[in-house]
Amino acid sequence: MSIDGKIVVITGASSGIGRATAKLLAQQGALVVLGARRLEPLQQVAEAISASGGRVAFRQTDVRQRGDLEALVSAAVEEGGQLDVIVNNAGVGPISRFDDLKVEDWDLMIDVNFRGTLYGIAAALPVFARQGFGHVVNVISTAGLKIVPTMGVYAATKNAVRTATEALRQEAGPTLRVTEISPGMTATNFGDSITDAAMKKKIEADLGATAIPADAIARGIVFAIDQPAEVDVGSIVIRPTAQG
Ligand SMILES: NC(=O)c1ccc[n+]([C@@H]2O[C@H](COP(=O)([O-])OP(=O)(O)OC[C@H]3O[C@@H](n4cnc5c(N)ncnc54)[C@H](OP(=O)(O)O)[C@@H]3O)[C@@H](O)[C@H]2O)c1
Predict the structure, then answer these.
(1) Domains and CATH numbers, the chain
(2) Each residue of 71-87: pLDDT tens digit?
(3) Does residue 119 carry a catalytic annotation?
(4) Which residues pair with 193 in a beta bridge?
């Protein structure tokens, strides 16, 4: 196992997939450095990890602010002396039909899902270059693999990340690992950001019927991180068996 002793930054760690990943990595001996906007749930995650003997730090982070990601990465380096992995997981999915013209929701998805991931990459790369090693893990979505109505902008932001991830992988050279992971329907608070009441109800019902636990995605992320330094897990798709 190579998780023990790794220093891992995780965005969107106050809930869902980010929280599950933080807990699993901490259980296996990583020092996890958590970022999200809401301090209270972030603190609760950190307390749960500490209470079970894990090593954890956290910092209020809005991934739309480049400086917040720089500060989160700096906190990890200060706390752990280096940065092994950044998991760019923070994301929102206020999905809707195009003719609803929820343009502010489109902007939010671009800013959080795409720009926020780029800011995470920008914060981590100089540290990785200085160290001569590092690992970028970007959480994408099966919404970008099977495009369906109402998910156009969400899927576009996720596929923008997919495109950037592949170019980064090719640029990265022999010492930097780059992984994309595409979850399918996962039981989290993902529906919370949906501003259309009927859409929110439908997505929450779909998730309730089909979703897999956030742990299933966390195990995929841990698998990629756990590989030897010369093994780069490029792309993982994890969805419910029942997802069409
Ligand atoms: N659940 C699914 O079915 C599913 C499927 C495919 C992909 N995904 C992707 O998985 C990732 C995690 O989502 P989830 O399903 O675990 O949903 P979730 O439970 O709602 O978690 C989303 C996380 O992102 C954080 N976040 C949102 N906006 C942020 C911002 N501006 N700055 C920093 N953090 C922010 C939230 O924390 P705060 O609110 O405290 O900031 C929260 O911790 C997302 O990228 C999502 O697109 C989810």
Answers:
(1) 7-238 (3.40.50.720)
(2) 999 999 999 999 999 99
(3) no
(4) none
